[in-house]
Amino acid sequence: MPVAPLPVGEEKTKHVRSMFDAIAPRYDLVNRLMTFGLDQAWRRDTISALALPNGARVLDLACGTGDLSVLAGRKGYSVVGADLSWGMLTANSSGVPLVHADCSQLPFPDGSFDGLVCGYALRNFTDLAQAFLETARVLRPGGRLAVLEVDAPSSPVLKAGYHVWFDKVVPKLGGLLSDKEAYSYLPRSVAYLPAAPVLRRMLTEAGYSTVGIRPLAGGLSQLIMATRIGTP
Q1: Please, what are the averages of pLDDT over each run of 10 residues along the chain (232 residues)?
Q2: Domain covering 9-228 in this structure, CATH number
Q3: What totals of helices (H) and strands (E) does the chain contain, helices first?
Q4: How many Cα atoms sit within 13 Å of 184 on the Cβ side?
Q5: Nearest by Cα to 31 from 65, 82, 6, 76
Q6: 81-124, pLDDT tens digit by residue?
């Protein structure tokens, strides 16, 4: 049976919103199983990459159920969460202030935050270039960006195992525990994610400098870090 093309434009926005509304109740459980629990260590690495002082204002963009928000709060940061999905916001138990928002048009004044984190959401943004422009706008000069995203291992052995797990096992696991259609779409959505050189260029063009991309666990995930241009 032919596979339907990935949605684009407003169709993608609607699809992503409804998909995450549907999987929100069991999102954390499936995430832990998908990554064998490694995602928690990667999320801690993401918060540590901010390297901001106690009390810094941090936006958790596409906050989902709030894992990054909780970890940022434990670091002493003042956190606000924002997400496109009402279902995710309803399932969020982080205790931080929450805002329903589209990443391409954030409802915050310029320079509102010292740092911004985002976990596994870049490929779900309809207009990634515009999303990066908005993150830069709401960060103060010198503010820090730390983004956790999927990747693909470079090692042939790891790469083969990764594709079997991510493309074959994860959709079945998601279908058993949550929503089959959503967890069949998520592995395919990696196609939306630009290669590392393109990501670097997009961030630079949006107003960032010192862009770094670090593979995690041999390339199972990646940590993207950048600094907002300007003097604090």
Answers
A1: 79 94 84 76 95 97 96 98 97 97 96 97 96 98 96 70 68 70 82 93 96 88 95 67
A2: 3.40.50.150
A3: 10, 7
A4: 10
A5: 65
A6: 999 999 999 999 999 999 999 999 999 999 999 999 999 999 99
User: What distance in Å separates the CA atoms of residue 219 and residue 232, rounded to the nearest whole number?
Assistant: 33
Per-residue model confidence (pLDDT) at position 93: 93
What's the DSSP call for residue 145? E
Q: How open is the CA angle 120-88-57, to the nearest 5 degrees?
A: 70
All residues at 6 or more sequence positions from 202 whose CB lies less than 8 Å from its CB, including other chains: 128, 129, 132, 194
SS3 of 100, please? Answer: strand
Ordered by start, the domain boundaries in the chain are 9-228
Contact indicator for 92, 120 with CB cutoff of 8 Å: no
Neighbours of 112 (CB within 10 A): 17
String of DSSP letters for 53-69: -TT-EEEEET-TTSHHH
